[in-house]
Specification:
Helix content: over 70%
Largest sheet: none
Radius of gyration: 18 Å
Structural class: mainly alpha
Number of helices: 8
Distance between the termini: 15 Å
Order of helices and strands: HHHHHHHH
Strand content: under 5%
Number of strands: 0
Length: 153
């Protein structure tokens, strides 16, 4: 039996919850665009959040949210089954997210608010924490045990 680190179990569950959130957002994008825009605005103090990117997508939002629901569901399954591609993909997403946050710091300095600064600091801290966790040897080994077991068979 594979031993899944508790953090990976938590991450898989969070990804499944994220899948549900994307489906709700897709529904809002189809049924009530104004409610979706109010929600995105509330999640983006001073523009430091998802609102600018999501509103730029416009009419493709339902498609985007549907695709992201599929991607996050696949990643949740990958983490649950300890498939290394999911870990590598998450590492790439975290690095990309950190790069985008660094690029967005200019906007933060143009109109700094406590909410925007706090949100950015929390996002950076969580990204660095998950990056560190996924690169730890016990976590890497948990994913590689499955690959080694498959090669041995």
């Amino acid at each position: 039996m594979k031993t899944r680190p508790i953090g990976i179990t938590i991450l898989a569950i969070l990804l499944w919850l994220n899948t549900g959130l994307y489906l709700v957002l897709a529904g809002l994008a189809i049924v009530s665009r104004s409610s979706l825009l109010r929600l995105l605005h509330a999640l983006s103090p001073s523009g430091a959040g998802p609102e600018p990117i999501h509103t730029a997508i416009r009419d493709l939002l339902p498609l985007y949210y549907g695709i992201m629901a599929g991607v996050t569901f696949a990643m949740a399954m990958g983490f649950w089954k300890l498939l290394n591609w999911a870990r590598v993909m998450m590492l790439g997403i975290i690095v990309l997210s950190l790069m985008l946050m660094v690029a967005g710091v200019r906007l933060l300095f143009e109109a700094p608010t406590a909410g925007a600064i706090s949100l950015t600091l929390v996002r950076v801290a969580l990204s660095v924490l998950w990056l560190w966790y996924l690169l730890r040897r016990p976590v890497r080994d948990a994913f590689h045990r499955l690959a080694a077991k498959a090669e041995a068979s």
